[in-house]
Amino acid sequence: KYHFGAASVLLGVSLVLGAGTQVVKAEEAVTSSEPTIASSVAPASTEAVAEEVDKTNAEATLVPAENTSAVATTSTEVEKAKAVLEQVTSESPLLAGLGQKELAKTEDATLAKAIEDAQTKLAAAKALLADSEATVEQVEAQVAAVKAANEALGNELQKYTVDGLLTAALDTVAPDTTASTLKVGDGEGTLLDRTTTATPSMSEPNGAAIAPHTLRDKVEATKESGWYTFESYDLNSYNRNQNGSIVGGTAVGAYIRYSLDSDPATSTVLAELVSTKDGEVLESHKLEAGNSVTFSYPKTINAKNSNITLTYDTSTATADIPGSLKFYDDRDAVYSTVVVPAYQVNTTRYVTEDGTVLATYSLQTIAGQTVTSSKVRTFTGYDYVKTTQNAIQGAYPKGTLMLAGVGADKNGNKYYKAIREVVEDNQSVMTLYLLDPTYTGTVDWTGTDTTGFIPLLKTSPTVYTIDRKVYDYNINATILSPYTVDNGFMVFKESATNAQGSKYRVVAQWSGTDETDPTKPEYTGGKYGRIYIGTQVWTTAKELGITENQWRGTADKFDNNGFVPFGTQQYLRNASVATAVETTHVYKVNPKFGDVIVEYYDTDGKQIVNSVVDTPKSALGTEYNTDVDRRPASLVAADGTVYFYKEVKSDSAKTTGTVVAGTTTVKYVYEKAGSVNVNFVDINGKVIKAPVSDEKDAKPGYNYDTDLDQKLASITFEGKEYKLVPAGDYPVGKVGKGNNLIEVGNNTAKGIDPTTGKIEAGVNKEVTYVYKAVTGSVVVNYKDTEGNVIKDPETDVSDAPVGDAYTTTDKKPNEIITKDGSRYVLVPSKTDGEENGKVIEGTITVTYVYQKVANWIPEIPNVPETNRPKVPYPFDPTEPDEPNRSNDTRNKWRGSKYSLRSRIYTG
Known about the structure:
The chain is mainly beta.
């Protein structure tokens, strides 16, 4: 993957996004001409391979790579401007793709609009690039428009990054079977060297194309748009059973073909039953992995016919194979098994002699399609050297097993067969089986059944040939079956003697040469690259006067007594032509060009963002000035850290000058930004308000003042009001005159930085203001009508949060009797203060007033005053100033023998 730093938000897309890897996509690149390759051997299907044995030597012809040297041309001013436009437009598809991925997960109208705008500007730029009449002014205006759209889109995408990093995947290794956003036939160019310009541009296929899969004779590819036919089955064995005595039905004049669609994210197979008469599709189904479908058309021909069942078997699935298609009838007989090929990305690479990758061009393919690589391009500042190619894919995917060929004499007598297994995408092994002369049963010459055969050898894995000129030969010397050696030949088994007294034996002999020049016909890659396979006959040679039986071979005179010697030279090489190759075009640096790049470091010498190209590959002497547009005031590193410019690094090249050979590297030093956070806690250290940022990512040396911007006189938290505490010691620690923490106490809060000061590089300052909850109390007093205290005050609420409800009615007795026995009755109308309400800061006082109740002392003759009864004077508390006479106790004394001559008020 190639990473695009988030610094582009501050630097402009030209800094990181603009100068980063270019990824440009071409339209579908499929050749229109019919392929000239003959049919290849079908995958593991006993019936299918029998039809193809004679075709195993017909291989694909690869379009040769263009080896002409790239010639640089002098660009006009318009062409130079277009090169810049092409560079900035290459970012648009990548950014739009990243944006579309986010829109698939969330709704974001702003992001959607930014994507639309970038795509609109991209379309306009493409039109201008294709306009031969475009002026420099038009192109430069479009450069500015695309840059602005890309920057806006890049800024929107920053919201969806965890660390401010935009990441784009590059296909730099082929074949790549991972998920791709390309459709089959689509191409994508990637310019990795940001100092150069490619001609043709990386948006051009430059010859890169795919050809459809090679199909069997008289098989047509599907006409369904967006689908690619990769294999077929001709129903041969199935039909033999239908019109045979077992089923008693009728042969179906059709074949079945299989296709994959253009979307690599799917593995759905389109299965179509196609008429052999006119190509009409008789019945079709789309088959998902792990499922089965039934074709009922055969029963419309004859009710006795078996239905056709296709099963998409995933039990054999691997990273390279989605699964296989199995063709059944009603009796569950398997007639054909076809491996479903994988989707792959085939890549052409452009590299320097030291292996540095300048660019790549990738094509989305289906394994087995023939791929033509992208041709040589011109890269400013580099000269083309050579082209190399490596096979990466054959016609069939890994795991395919097939009959590769049968060895027979001129009379059609068969003696051995070869079975090929694809062990890697670009490699196969071949196993040779000799007919066992002692076996008397029926053997399979049309498939992969080895009953009745002797295993001779299994080759080492060999790679497909690219050009039919260079082959990969066997190096494995292991013989799989027991043998003896006679006269230099490995002897295996011999047949029974016939009526004429003759018999034959199977022999083999390594016959490879020591030739080291691969271009010469006698080259075999060594001793084990070829083997002689044959039979020797136990017979006479009367022409030579030999009348006793002896072993006679193909080089000997012999008498035909029922057996004829056979022999052939079997080359042990991979003659199959690769359908896809990795083409590598190699370049060397041109010393007449140079470039200027800019690097950004922190004060510890660590590079903090991707380097950027100030001056791409240019002629020596070209002027440059990195201070103008490559030294931003601030930038953002990949981890989100903000930096501010400080100075030029000591080992930097000059920030202004002229281009010299090679690369000139200018280095700037940036220091980390600083921050100031403000915390709000109570006297115990509990957070009562979320911290706030007073200064975030600020420039070092900048003045800050939290007293001015963040200090709050009061805070409401959980329904309570808090106010700043004065200087002093509290559980949380020591508080200074500015109401802020200056020494840590119980370790619940630790921010003890001053409330004013300067931003420091890389320092996050923490200021902590300390608060205390505002409280209040409610006190109840008890007094008589003269203002005298008749009962000690009571506290109804103590240190209660302001705003809490209170009531003093539970502390309001109707009467009070003092220690001296005096009785006081509540006078409600004289209550002073609110009996019910909410606590406020300070003390609320409620005073209840009581009236002292008087007694009448009657004058009773001859009774000492101390013994005289005290009669309470009637009192109505609702009218404390108007005594109630209606029940005056004195009335009880009237008419009695006692005299109420005087009234004495006593307490």
